[in-house]
Amino acid sequence: MTGKTLYDKIWDAHLVEQDEDGTCLIYIDRHLVHEVTSPQAFEGLRMAGRQVHAPDKTIAVPDHNVPTTAGREDTANMTEESRIQVEALDRNAREFGINYYPVDDIRQGIVHIIGPEQGWTLPGMTIVCGDSHTATHGAFGALAHGIGTSEVEHVLATQTLIQKKSKNMKVEITGQLPPGVTAKDITLSIIGHTGTAGGTGYVIEYCGEAIRSLSMEGRMTVCNMAIEGGARAGLIAPDETTFDYIKGRPHAPKGAQWEAALAWWKTLYSDDDAHWDKVVTIRAEDIAPVVTWGTSPEDVRAITGTVPAPEEFRGGKAEAARRSLDYMGLEPGTPLTDIKIDAVFIGSCTNGRIEDLRAAAAILKDRKLAPGVRGMVVPGSGLVRAQAEEEGLDVIFKEAGFEWRLAGCSMCLGMNPDQLAPGERCAATSNRNFEGRMGRGGRTHLMSPAMAAAAGVTGHLTDVRELMAETV
Amino acid sequence: MEKFEKLTGIAAPLPLVNVDTDMIIPKQFLKTIKRTGLGVNLFDEMRYDADGNEKPDFVLNRPQYRNAEILIAGDNFGCGSSREHAPWAIKDFGIRCVVAPSFADIFFNNCFKNGILPVVLPQEQVDILMKDAEKGANARMTVDLENQTITTSEGEVIAFDVDPFRKHCLLEGLDDIGLTLEKAAAIDGFESSMAQARPWV
C-alpha cells in the first residue's frame, strides 16, 4: 500500500462524510474572520435564523481597512465605509459570542499574524478564513486556505466545508541559502519558476534542507504566497522548530494535552513512499535576491538582471507582459538596479513579523532613506510592534526616516488610507503587485524586507548584498 | 441561489491572461456590506478613466457588448484575492457564464455559490469561442448546462466537463448550507469522536 502525504493525513483526519462522486464534507478546526469578507455572511445567518455552530473555534479581528495611525480606536476617525464594516464586525463578534480582538486590543493585528501568535494555529488543523493568504498557517503543518463569503457563512453555520480533494505537489528546496537570500526570495523564486497557475489544483508541501533551516517566521512567508502560485494551500511538516514556537502560547495545549498533541503532531509528515502528482526541485544555491518587474507575482527576476522584453514570452503572456511594462512605466533591457523608487512599504501578512522588521532594521541601522523616498513600517500585530520597540527597532526606523505605524494590512491592499499615488513606485514586502493593488496607478515591486530597506537607502532597486558588504 | 439551466446570450471577448480579482473589482468597492450593486464597478479601472468617464475601447463599454451575459477569457482567470465581490460584480453586471482555459481555485468555487457557471475548456476551443465572441452582438452563444454544451453562433457544438454535484446544485438552485445542515448528525458525531481523539483542538 502506498504511503500518505502530510496533506492526505490531515484530510483523512477531518473527513466527516464522502459521497460517491468524491464530494467530501470536511470539518474545520479554526475559522478566522475579518471585517471585509464577513458582513454578508453574518447577515445571511441572521436572515435564516441560524447560529454560529462553534463560536469557540471562531476568531475575529479587524485588519483590512483599519487605519494604521494614532486615534483609530475611536471609529469616528475612520472613513464612513470602514467604520461601518469595523462596527459590523464588532457587533457580529459580540452578538454571536466568538473570540474577538478589537482594534484597541494590543493583540490586534493582521489575522494571519495573530492566529499563530496566540497559539490558535496548531499542526494538523484545518484552518480557513475569507482571505486568500490563509495559506500562511500551512507553515505549522495545518491545512489552511482562503474561502469566499458564501463559504464563510457555510463554516459559521456548520463548521464544515464541502470540498473535493486537491492533488499533491512537492516543492523541494535543496541545500542552504546563500547570504542575503531569504524566505521571500524562495517563495518568489518558486512562483517565478512554476507561474501563478502552476499550483492550481494542488496542495503544495515545501520541503528540503533550506526549508527545514527556516524559522517559523520564514516558513510563514513561504506558505503565505502559495496562493500566488495558484495552489489551494501550502504546507510544511511540523518539527522541533514548530513545537518550540507553539509551546507556551496562550491557546496552545498545556500539560497532559500538550504531550498528547505532540505525540500526534510527530506523526504529521509525508511517508517516504507517498505518491506525488507533481514534483519541483530547486537548488537553494541557485536562488538570488529577487524583485518583481511586472504586475503578476510570477514576474520575478534576480536583482542582477534586466527588465525583460515581451517577445521573451509566449502565448497570452507576451501581451500581458506588454501591458505590465506599460503600467509599470519600464523599458525592456533596463538593469533592475536602475529603477528608481518613491516609497518603501515594510509590513503585511507576508513580511510583517518580528524577524522581518529585524532584517530591515539591520540594513537601515545608521543609514537614512534616500532624499525624496517615503517609508512606512507597519508591524503585523500590536505584539510584534511592542517587541520591536523593546528591541529598539522603532528608533532605527524612525531615525532612518520611516513612519512607525500601528498594526494592520495597510498599504498591501490599500483599502485603508495607506495608498500609493498614481505613478508612485514602491519597494514592497507585500504579496501582490497587481495593477492598482496599492492604490490606483501605483507601481509595486515585491521583494524581501532587507531588499526593500536597501532600496529605500539608495533610492533605487538594489542588491542588498552590496549594503551587507559595506556593513561588514 | 438562482438556478442556471440554459442561457443564450451575447459573449464578450477578454483575451487577457491572469485577470486578477483586483481588476475584476478593485478594493475600494469591497467596503459594502451587501452582495448587490457592484455591477457598475465591474472591471472598474479598465472600464473608467480616473475621472470616472467610460473608456470607449474597453470591451464592456462597446455598444455590442454592453448586455453581454457570457465572458470568454484567458488563462488563470480570477487569480488573487478570495473576495466574493468578484463573482458578485460579474453577476450584478448580468454575466452568468465565464469560459477560460483555467481559473483560480477560490474564484472558481465562489462562482458556483452565486449561480455563475465557470467553464474550463482547452485553449484551442476557447480560441474558437473567442473568435465567435469577437463578432459582437450578432454572435449569440448558447450554454446548456444539462447537456454540458456550448453552441457557437455558427452552430458548432463544444462539450464541457462539470463536477456532477456542482451541476446538480446549479440546475436546482440549491443552497449548500441547507444541504449540509441535513447532515447535522454526522457533524455532531464527528465532533464527539474528536473531543476524545484531539481534545486540545
Automatic annotation (TrEMBL), chain A:
Catalytic function, reaction form: (2R,3S)-3-isopropylmalate = (2S)-2-isopropylmalate
UniProt-listed SUPFAM superfamilies: Aconitase iron-sulfur domain
EC number: 4.2.1.33
GO molecular function: 3-isopropylmalate dehydratase activity; 4 iron, 4 sulfur cluster binding; metal ion binding
Residues binding [4Fe-4S] cluster: C349, C409, C412
InterPro entries named among the record's database cross-references: 3-IsopropMal_deHydase_lsu (IPR004430), Acnase/IPM_dHydase_lsu_aba_1/3 (IPR015931), Acoase/IPM_deHydtase_lsu_aba (IPR001030), Aconitase_4Fe-4S_BS (IPR018136), Aconitase_4Fe-4S_dom (IPR036008), IPM_dehydratase_rel_enz (IPR050067), IPMI_cat (IPR033941)
Swiss-Prot/TrEMBL GO biological process terms: L-leucine biosynthetic process
Signal peptide: none
Pathway: Amino-acid biosynthesis; L-leucine biosynthesis; L-leucine from 3-methyl-2-oxobutanoate: step 2/4
Domain Aconitase/3-isopropylmalate dehydratase large subunit alpha/beta/alpha: 8-459
Record's keyword terms, sorted: 4Fe-4S, Amino-acid biosynthesis, Branched-chain amino acid biosynthesis, Iron, Iron-sulfur, Leucine biosynthesis, Lyase, Metal-binding
Any one Pfam family match given in the protein's UniProt record, by short name: Aconitase
Cofactor remark from the record: Binds 1 [4Fe-4S] cluster per subunit.
Cofactor list: [4Fe-4S] cluster
Entry superkingdom: Bacteria
Subunit and partners: Heterodimer of LeuC and LeuD.
Function (record text): Catalyzes the isomerization between 2-isopropylmalate and 3-isopropylmalate, via the formation of 2-isopropylmaleate.
Family per similarity comment: Belongs to the aconitase/IPM isomerase family. LeuC type 1 subfamily.
Protein name according to UniProt: 3-isopropylmalate dehydratase large subunit
Gene: leuC
TrEMBL record, chain B:
Classification via SUPFAM superfamilies: LeuD/IlvD-like
Top-level taxon of origin: Bacteria
Biological process terms in GO annotation: L-leucine biosynthetic process
GO molecular function, one term: 3-isopropylmalate dehydratase activity
Domain Aconitase A/isopropylmalate dehydratase small subunit swivel: 1-124
Protein's pathway: Amino-acid biosynthesis; L-leucine biosynthesis; L-leucine from 3-methyl-2-oxobutanoate: step 2/4
EC number: 4.2.1.33
InterPro entries, A to Z: 3-IsopropMal_deHydase_ssu, Aconitase/3IPM_dehydase_swvl, AconitaseA/IPMdHydase_ssu_swvl, IPMI_Swivel, LeuD
Function: Catalyzes the isomerization between 2-isopropylmalate and 3-isopropylmalate, via the formation of 2-isopropylmaleate.
Annotated protein name in UniProt: 3-isopropylmalate dehydratase small subunit
Species this protein is from: Rhodovulum bhavnagarense
Gene that produces this protein: leuD
